[in-house]
Amino acid sequence: MLGRLLIAITACHALITPRLLVQRAPALKSTVADAVNKGKAEKGKVSFLKTAYPVASAATTLAWTACAMQALGTHPRLTLPPLHTRLTIAQALVPLPLVWASCDALKAAAEVGWSRLQSATYRRLNLALCASSLWLASACWFAPAFTGATTVTYACKLKAGATAIHLATAGIAAGAWFESSPGSLLQAPGRVVKGLAGSVMSLVPPGGDKLADPDSAEAKVVAPALLTAALGAWTCAALAAPFPTATLPYALGRRLSRAAGAHTLLACAAAYCVRDAEVRGRSDASTFVKLRKGLRAVGVLHLLCFAAKVAFDDWSQYPAASTKPILSVASLATYAAAAAI
After folding, report:
1. What distance in Å separates the CA atoms of residue 107 and residue 18, rounded to the nearest whole number?
2. How far apart are CA 172 and CA 130, in angstroms?
3. What is the DSSP string of 17-76?
4. Cα atoms found within 13 Å of the Cα of residue 319, Cβ hemisphere only
5. How would you write the pLDDT of the chain (341 residues) with one tens digit per residue?
């Protein structure tokens, strides 16, 4: 009797089990399909970024060059010597190597995937690229507010095109930053503020007494930390200092100096990334080599342009250099440090 009962139970179980499997199969299939679709979407985003960063770099170069040529090509009130105009335009193009280096580093990270873009270094670079692009877009669209009494207005097509390029670049960088950062959109402002405050507080190099030994490993952090602080100060000066102080360090006059502060902001972030790499012993990684080369190029080109101005241009055209000699020397020291980093 007991044997027959066990046989009946087994038969019932055999009849029920296939139905359960049939019921679970669609759910399992749906879960797998969702995972596959999500993977394809993530792969598509990374593939987009691999193309978007070089395009953004080239477009930003064109937009900034066009704006510099129009803003500095003629003066609204003065007739300036052609040599002065050429040297000033050349000075305005000095920051571009760092834009190229930053976008190239982000492109290389995108080629690896989200695992690389989620690193703090690339989140910083994306955020800095976004902020500098928004700054450039604002400086183009609201040019009179950035140029003071020496009002600069761009041609309508250039104004619309350059603003669109900078906003698109900002959107690419912001999207990559958000996708690679934990937390929701509502938490993003808090994360930015905390990260910025933490970065400022961490500029004091660790190492204690070992920092006094220039040959120690800890002392290698000092130069990029000082460069970061100096570039941060010049960024604030470009944004808020009165003229002619705001024309430093690029010496572009009222017409473009505040706009050029966007590039100083990007340089500040790049210098911080180099400093962070020194702390972590990662300074020989390809990203930091690229950023260091970009900073060096900016520093060297800045000093060369300044030397050309001293040798061939009329010094009276640079009121900040003559009325603010200490700040002028400090600006030169900043870019000498960048050239030597």
Report:
1. 50
2. 8
3. HHHHHHHHHHHHHHHHHHHHHHHHHHHHHHHHHHHHHHHHHHHHHHHHHHHHHHHHHS-S
4. 8
5. 445 544 444 444 444 444 444 445 555 444 444 433 444 445 667 888 999 999 999 999 999 999 999 988 877 666 777 888 888 899 999 999 999 999 999 999 999 988 899 998 999 999 999 999 999 999 999 988 888 766 788 889 999 999 999 999 999 999 999 898 776 666 667 777 776 776 676 667 665 555 555 656 566 777 888 999 999 999 999 988 888 888 888 878 888 889 999 999 999 999 999 998 888 888 889 999 999 999 999 999 999 998 998 888 777 777 777 778 888 889 999 999 999 98
DSSP letter (8 states) at residue 244: T
Distance CA(100)–CA(65), nearest Å, equals 14
Q: What pTM was computed for the model?
A: 0.82
The tokens for 181 are 């950062």
Q: How far apart are CA 152 and CA 146, in angstroms?
A: 9
Residue keyed to tokens 């399909």: 33
Residue 219 CA: distances (Å) to CA of 137, 189, 200, 260: 39, 34, 18, 31
Q: Say which DSSP state 214 is in.
A: T
The first and second tokens of residue 22, run together, are 């049939």
What is the token pair recorded at 45?
């985003």
DSSP 8-class letter at 216: S
Q: Which residue in this structure is represented by tokens 């691999």?
A: 50
Which residue type occupies 213? D
Whole-number Cα distances in Å, 84 to 13, 245, 267 = 92, 20, 26
Q: How many CB atoms lie within 10 A of CB 145?
A: 11
The DSSP element (H or E) to which 191 belongs, if any, is helix 188-201
Return the structure tokens found at 127: 């955020």
Cα gap 79→151, rounded to integer Å: 15
Asked whether 51 and 178 are in contact (CB, 8 A), the reply is no
* Upper half-sphere CA count for residue 117 (Cβ side, 13 Å): 30
